[in-house]
Each structure stands twice: as C-alpha cells, then as structure tokens.
Amino acid sequence: MKQPKAFTPGLAIISTFMAFSVLATPPPLVSDDPHEETHDESQPLLGISDGHVRSDPSAPLMEHDAAVAGIISDAPFAKVTKNLAEAGRGERLSPNSTTDVWALGNYAYTGTFNSPCGGDPEAGIWIWDVRNKTNPERVGIIQSPTGSRTNDVRVASMGSGDILVHSNESCAGGPGGYEIYNVDDPSNPVHLASVQTDDVNLFLRDNFGFTDFGVHNLWLFTQGAKDYVAATVESEIGNFQIFDITDPTNPTLVGFWGAEQLHLPDITDWVNLSDFGVILDADAYLFSGFGASQNRFLHDVTITADGTRAYLANWDAGLVLLDISDPANPQVVSVALDPANGSLDGEVNSHSVWPSEDGTIVVEGEEDFSAWEATIAPGNVTFGNGNPIPGVIAATSTGDAFEASQTGNAGFITASSVEVTSGPLTDSVFGANEFSGNNFPLGAGSYSGNFVWIGQACNGDPILNPLGAGDIAVVRRGACTFAEKSVNASNAGAGAIVVTNNNSNSTPWSGLRIWNYSDPANPILASIFDTECSASTAPGGNCDARGTYSSHNVLVETSDGRVKAYISWYSDGVVVLDVTNPYDPVEVARYHRAGTEFEAENGGIQDIWGIYKVPNEPWIYASDRNGGLYILKEYGSGSAKNGRD
C-alpha cells in the first residue's frame, strides 16, 4: 500500500505577537478544570494573545487516561448484552490505540490514536474484510504520515469511485490536514492526495503562521455531480471547511464557516479581515463558553443524504444547523443551545450529532471528562520551577483519608499509586499520577516511608505534624505552586511528597440531548438521557473507577417507523435508544462487558470509541480503544443469546 506523502508542518506557536499586542488584549479566560492546570495558580485558557492556538481536542481524554492508569477497580464483573450480541472480532490488543470505525460494503476501517504514532508500521487505518461477520480478517494498513495520528476515517461511493478520507493530527511533529485514497480494491488502496488545512484568515496565516492545522473529523457528501468532503479543522477562524473533491487528485477549498460568525455577524469577509482588534474580539468569544471546558470550536459534523444541510456539534456554541445547498456560502438556519436544561451540570460540550431521516428528531452527544473530580487524581501536572524530592498527585478523597489519619501510616508511592502497607489505612491503594518536570522521577520504581500529613505546605504555613528524615509528606493542593510545597516539605525532612487535590465538588459525566426539529428554525429540547454511570458523581456499584462514562459518538437510523440512536459510550459499551418519541427516549439494547476474563480478551477495560450501523441490517461495528473491532448483531425483543446464529 502506498505511503501518504508528507508535507511541512506550519507554526503551532506564535512568535510574533509582541508586534501586535499594543492593539488590543482580550479579557482573561480562566478554566476551572483542575486537570488542565499546570500548577496551583489559575491558568488562562490560551488564545491568540497568549501566543498559542487551539489545544489538541483529544487532550482531555489523554489526561483522563493518565489519571486512571493506576487505579485498581473494585467494580462488579458485570455483563450486559440486552438485545445485542457479539458476532465476531477483529482483534487489536493495544492500549488506547483504536479510534473511529466506518464501513462500506464488505470492508470496515478503524483508525489509530497517539500510540503507535505515524512511522510505526502498526499506525494508520486498519482495513478489515467483514464478509464473514464471525471472523473478520485484517487485510492491510494504510500507513499514517510520519509523526501523525489518524483519528477519523470516512469512506463512501462517490462519482470518482469508492473514496476513503482520513484525518491527520500531530502526535510527534507530523502534518495536519487529511489524506484521500481510492479503495475500489480495499486490499490495494491508491493514494490520491495529501491536503494541507490552514486558517482561512490571511492575516493570521501571514503574520502568525496559522497553517497546517490538524483535522479532527471528516464527512463525505455529494450534491448532484459534485463530490465534497467537510473537514473539522483545528484552526482559529473558519474551522468548518468544505472541499470540492470531484477530482480527488485536486481538492479545492470552496467554502467555510465558524462560530465567530455567530458573534460578529456583520463581518462579511473573514478571509481578508485584518483589523486585529476585531480578530481578538472573535478570539475571546471562541475561547469562552460554559462550565469546565470552555471553547466554541467545531468538533464534529453530520450532513444529510442530499448534501444540503449540515449539523455542526460546535462545543459551547451549541448545535448549529447550516444550509449548505450552496457550499461556497453556508447559511445559519438555527442554533440549539440550552445550558440550563441540557445537561446535569451545566456543561454544553456539543460533541456529536445525527438527525433522523426526516430531520424532525436530532440526537446530540455531550462529551465531558471533568467528572468525579473528588475521587480521581488530576493528570497533566508539572512541578514547574523544579523540585528537590520526587512526588505524585492524588485525588481529593485520598487527602481526606490522610487528613483523618494524619500519622501512623507507612507504605510506598509509585508513578501511578499511593499504597499503605501498615497503620490505620492498611491495604488502602489510591490512584496517583507522577508530576512531569520532575527532577527526581520515580519512573518504574517506588519510594517507601512513613506517610505524614503536614497541611498545605506553602511559605509561612505551619507543618502540622513533624516529619522524620525521609518520610513521605502528604499535603493539600492550593494557594501556592507545587514546587513551593515540594521545597517546604523537603526542608522539613521529607524524602518524597504526595499532593492531594482540593476539589471536593464532583460532577457527573455527560449524556445525550434529544431535540425536536419539527421546525428546523426553532429547535426545542425534548429530553436528555444519561446512563446510571454517566449520571453518577462518584465511582462505585456498577461504575468502575477506571472507566470513562461520557457518551462519545452517535448514529441515528429510521426503520419500520422507529427512530433509533446507536451510541458508543466508552465504558458503558454500546447503547441503543428508541427516540421515536423524542420526549421519552427508551433504552432498548446494550452491549457491555467487564471482568478479568473480558479484560484479558480485550486488552483492558471496555472503552468503545466508534460506532457504525449497516443500514437496514442488524449489524453494528464498534471500535474499542483497547481491543479493536467488534461486530455486534442487534436482535428484537428479548436477550441476544448468540450472535453467531
């Protein structure tokens, strides 16, 4: 198979802002997500004025992966296969590696996340022959460009043949954009084009190097004799971009839209806009929003079969319906947004969307990784200015346990755990994450000693309990930097430090919003739907502490007068809802498995990323981040007993 050709990545960090900073500065925008702070001082969400462009849309997921890596589960070994059964598997046992799934005819295609990264022979789009549903066979891999990951893949029959597109996002300095292949013969894909995706604003491209951005999602569609691909580009301005691929060897950008147009509707020429004050105004709007994860950038799109309507899951800008009958001039039809009633915790985070066949019902998925904050150790933390002793960060609940039992405990810390071997907390194992920027990394090793609670440990704070030489200091996050706490603990005699979080307000995960679009110009929120675990504010019972219980992707099918939504729901598995009555969604099927036997088979806990439904057939393809491709068979009433029937 042909290797995609690479192209030179553009600048991701602005180096020339100071020449323009005298013109205007946007208001500071502060994230209250403790997972995103690098130290204890509040960190602004970065925009143009800070010298950075958008962060990786998958960063919260990667942080959550790190945060739960050391947790040992005490959840029950549940197995729920109501009306769905496993028919076959395309095995890929690689932690957090498999991403989206799509299919055309007798072949399914799955993507690859950060590891393995492009350049590794296992990185790229895996091609599966699924003619035998009980025994899918891998027939090849379309290699990722070196240094890039291939999160998203779409394939469709178009005027020029069977066309596959896959996204590129850097995982080690590789290119953004997307690739185009002909897959008339899926066992021998033919590379047609590498497409670089840039910011549409010339001022930002010319002065700030806003070029070669990653693409997070793609959608293929046709209007008459014209073929198109819509791309979710990780740019600042115009991040919904439409390309004419009628000649797939010569893709051409023909139209774009961005949420900045909701904020500044009187601007008619975003390509040539050079008023930096106006651009900064747009920037401030785009990096604001609701709840813990604030921005108004596009995440995903679904386009109707006739290619004239685009439903945009536009994060905190809400669910945007565009008329794209003229792809060069998208027009807003409506915006569906209800932060007060649309989720359990005030988040919007519009992540995925799919309309019913007649467009009167639209299912929107919210993605939220700011959940269970009090019981999960934060990720993505660094000592910043340095540290004299090794250290890890643990959850608020870990701090609560040690604050209630301040001395008399002994044990050890690793890069992913705090374990007590003697004392009042004997046999307690707490999840933790090692600080990056660590002058004394634990790595694969450990540090043993007595645990001593000493309080907040900022300059001027009292050391609440005396430390013996080499003890492990346990402190509470807040008021000063991690490095300052580390220095003060070391000066008091500690040989290592455990910083425990200070966020006691645990929130739930996220579910679905079901909208009534009988009047597309005036959508009405009909209902929301959550699972038991997505609505929970703490692990326990059926909810595994290692799990991810946010909804992810959704697909809607209308058949025999019923409207069903098929959802990939990470650790809740595959969930099927009957949304024929959008005001009363009913779960009608689920495929969820857990337990040591399943984890051995799957290469880890269940973690369903992607979903594809073969139209008007009972077959569902689901991609598990740890285990690869699953082929499920949907049944009618009653339990699914044997997918191999």
Rg estimate, integer Å: 25 Å
Quaternary state reads single chain
Structural class: mainly beta
Mean pLDDT: 88
Number of helices: 7
Distance between the termini: 35 Å
| Poorly predicted runs of 5 or more residues | 1-46, 72-77, 637-645
The residue fraction in helices comes out at under 10%
Silhouette? globular
Q: Within the largest sheet, what's the order of strands?
A: 23-26-25-24-27-28-29
Number of strands: 38
Structure description:
With 645 residues, this protein is mostly beta strands. The protein has a seven-stranded mixed barrel. The chain has a five-stranded antiparallel β-sheet with strand order 1-35-34-33-32, with no helix packed on it. Strand 24 and strand 25 (417-422) form a beta hairpin. It is globular, with a radius of gyration of 25 Å. Mean pLDDT is 88; it is low at 1-46, 72-77 and 637-645.
Summarize the structure.
The chain is mainly beta and 645 residues long. The protein is built from 7 helices and 38 strands. The protein has a 7-stranded mixed barrel. Strands 1-35-34-33-32 form a 5-stranded antiparallel beta sheet, with no helix packed on it. The protein has a 4-stranded antiparallel beta sheet with strand order 2-38-37-36, with no helix packed on it.
